[in-house]
Amino acid sequence: MRYLYLIHRWLGIAFCLLFAMWFATGMVMHFVAFPTLTADERFAGMTPIATAQVHVSPEQARKTASAASIAQVRLAMRGERPQYVFVQDSGLAAIYADSGEIAPPAVRDEALRLALQHAHLRGLNVPRADYAELATHDQWTVPNGLDPFRPLHRIRLHDDAGTELYVSAVTGEVVRDTTRFERGWNYAGAVVHWIYPTALRKHWAAWDSTVWWLSLTALAGAVTGLIVGVARARWNHAAGLSPYRGMHYWHHMLGLVCAVFVLTYIFSGWLSMDHGRLFSKNAADPQEIAGLAGGTFETARFGAVPLGQLQGAKEIEFALLGGQPYLRARFDAEKQLIVDRQRNAVAHFAPAAVTAAARPLLSGQCGTAETVAADDAYYVAPSGHNAPLYRLRCADARHTWIHVDSASGQVIEQVDDSRRWYRWLYSALHTFDMPWLVAHPPLRTLLIVSLCLGGLLFSLTGVVIGWRRLKPRQ
To answer: Distance between CA atoms of 419 and 458, rounded to whole angstroms?
Structure first.
């Protein structure tokens, strides 16, 4: 026990401020998310495709781009010109759809013009705008999902919200926006909570290892504290439960009251950095993605694009399902049409089409596609707001579920026994992402704020004790 006291004391001194910051910033993050460009904002800032200007087929554009290992092709406007974007393993390639020329990287003036066009289409009041910088990373663009679009032009709009837009130098697309409110509160939220300084986070492996080991060491401090706190409690003593006085008394009592939450919060926070170390990942297996597509992506399969049928579309995606080519025409974040080779149009894929395409998956062990209810504990929102999510239950040893987006026909994730455990041990414990609580947002907010406040007060008593311990004695 003596060694446990020493371990807890010095781990507490080392991590008390970090504990306090995690609880305080956790409350901020509940109300203010990390900046992102939502689907509604993205489509509001896009113009309908000028179909009369599309003179080049996807196959002709692919030959110009010398694109290989294509996963998808998108068609949208870049300023006043239509542009194909090829998504491939090596990154993105952009080809103008009116001339077949390789689209050059967006430079300063074009980025400023594209950002202003996007802002005006969204109805933002922009008295003036200026160019800020071209950067590979900054504080708000460190997530890896933006890697194919880098470097990014940052444009300041000087509107009332202090909006800044990020334009991809590769494709000319606006890929992120931030406001003054988001930036300010995220410095007090996600940046501190995730230990997200740009210099560290842009090196993903270094950031991953750093936060994982910090979280694990903090967890050890919480576990030793629980053991010491329970051991020191006087459960049947007339003088009171705690033998301590002053700040140590409050630390002991708050620790006993908050012990379960503090331990589960730090444990689940550590699990947020698991990334396949102990539990399986939910990323779809490339073989299963290819299996659902039903073959290698080849632009020659699409032939002439029925653009007359897709007037008003702001983006057209070219993809495969079960070996059959289809076009996904998106008019806004919710409205879309899926058009097959026979030019039949539907709003989203039917369960039967997904079931038929899924026959090769996991050696034919997957069943029929079933619709997942929005209040299901494992529901993942599809890319179309009004589109259902389909689940394929497979009879393999890991009892895998494959979730398919009916709006795109793409595999969203794979969930096996390990991942289902992870869902409860991380999401449920850390963010209270439980169906019955999600259905009652005020109750969930009250619970999160109350528990985090308790954890913060407990941590602050540790800060005071640690400061007194380290303070030079007179």
So the answer is: 32
